[in-house]
Amino acid sequence: MSVEAKQCLNCRRTEDAVPLITLQIMGGNLWMCPQCLPILIHSPQKLTGKLPGAESMDAAEHGH
Questions:
Q1: Nearest to 3 by CA among 20, 18, 19
Q2: Residue 23, Cβ neighbours under 10 Å: how many?
Q3: pTM of the predicted model, to two decimals?
């Protein structure tokens, strides 16, 4: 499940270009850059096919 090179699972930029945050999921590691992190929080379905289970994740609710 881990991607060979450490790169953002969304935009594919590597750790040489941007900082990466490690995501632990289903016993493996994936990486995401800070610029793409809002997609995981607010629109996780956009990561379908890139992040296992993304299609069933709910977006964060904000109680403003």
A1: 20
A2: 14
A3: 0.81
